[in-house]
Amino acid sequence: MANSLATVTITGAGGQIGYALLFRIASGQLLGPDTAVRLRLLEIPQGLRSAEGAALELQDSAFPLLQSVDVTDDAASAFDGANVGLLVGSRPRGPGMERGDLLAANGAIFAPQGAAINAGAADDVRIVVVGNPANTNASIASAHAPDVPCERFTALTRLDHNRALGQLSEALHTPVSQLRDVSIWGNHSATQFPDIAHATAGGRPVVELLEEQLGADAAREWIRDVFIPRVAKRGAEIIEVRGSSSVASAANATIDHVSDWVSGTTHGWTSAALPSDGSYGVPEGLVSSFPVESIDGQWRIVQGLELDAFARERIDASVAELIEEREAVRTLGLLG
Ligand code: NAX
Q1: How confident is the model at residue 95 (pLDDT cuts 50, 70, 90)?
Q2: Residue 47 near ligand 1, beta carbon < 6 Å
Q3: Domain 158-326 falls in which CATH fold?
Q4: What span, in angstroms and rounded, lies between the C-alpha atoms of 305 and 322?
Q5: What pLDDT band is residue 82 in, cutting at 50, 70 and 90?
Q6: Whether residue 274 has pLDDT greater than 80
Q7: Residue 90 near residue 12 (C-beta atoms within 8 A)
Q8: Is the CB of 279 under 6 A from ligand 1?
Q9: Is the alpha carbon torsion for 231, 157, 285, 290 positive or negative?
């Protein structure tokens, strides 16, 4: 029997990732078996039928924890009382679309959603932005929610983190459960820096294991020329093989992100994009991915990691891209 109730708002709920998320949330995988959920599905008018269809299927699934499902195209009612907001619906870059057009189109989505969160969400609201460009969309939403602490606005890099774990598991013939302390730094884009300098497998440094397996030079090359680009460009690889972008793995990562945020990390650290507190020289306020732990319901950036020259260069490059995105959005007047 559930002893608490949470309102979870999903934007773009009629889309692919939305469809993969809804049933897992309703089954209790987001907030655990003791929390009943009230789902709010936000769509644009063209997406309403699809979301309504998903709502019918949710009813047909008879989830004991699911208390209600509302479908709407009104952001104010979707976010009213929301404890968790999964901001999935966005305007991804289309063919021939200039960056300014992309950012402006997303500003038109995330600015009003930020304002609706500010006006009506619950005091403990937690937001994760999935829709791309995710880091900058999170900044836009946060800028329009001045009464909500900025650290409640995060962006998803857990999929990149999980992709890195998958690649390491394969290379080292080690189960994912044995791997710890992989980090994703920077932007959720091809400039991100998947970092295994501090990672361990079965308690031993991953870099040492790779060096044993491949030799020192080949291990360094594998990390630089195979591992990093494969993780950073995995989204394109999925599109090429599957004919459509990542869906179930993106939904899975979103569930992992929120469930760790609420319940705590127990297996080393993970990765999430959140407003920088100035750690590791990342400008304060910039929504950038870091190695993080979740303690008492809050993300904390893992402190004190040593970064070598290679890591510094890769992080600086991704942060520079984020700064450029932020400046472009500022020029468009989207930061309030
Ligand atoms: P879909 O096109 O299947 O679904 C998006 C849905 O959002 C559509 O139903 C659309 O009607 C709705 N929508 C658009 N504007 C809206 C608004 N203002 N309010 C509410 N709903 C709105 O895309 P899907 O495959 O579900 O992907 C969604 C987003 O996730 C895309 O931006 C995609 O780029 C991004 N991704 C992010 C990932 C990450 O790791 N951060 C990985 C997967 C994915 O590529």
Answers
A1: confident
A2: yes
A3: L-2-Hydroxyisocaproate Dehydrogenase; Chain A, domain 2 (3.90.110)
A4: 22
A5: very high
A6: yes
A7: yes
A8: no
A9: negative
| pLDDT (tens digit per residue) in 227-269 | 999 999 999 999 999 999 999 999 999 999 999 999 999 889 9
If one counts every other C-beta atom within 10 angstroms of the C-beta of residue 75, the result is: 20
Q: Is 222 exposed, middle or buried (0-12, 13-18, 19+ CB in 10 A)?
A: middle
Looking at the predicted structure, is the pLDDT value of residue 317 above 90? Answer: yes
Give the number of the atom of ligand 1 that is nearest the alpha carbon of residue 89: 7
pTM over 0.90: yes
Residue ranges covered by each domain of the chain = 4-155, 158-326
Task: Note whether 13 and 22 are within 8 A (CB).
Answer: yes
Q: Which two tokens stand for residue 108?
A: 């038109």
**Fold of the CATH domain 4-155:** Rossmann fold (3.40.50)
Residue keyed to tokens 């987001």: 30
188 is catalytic: yes
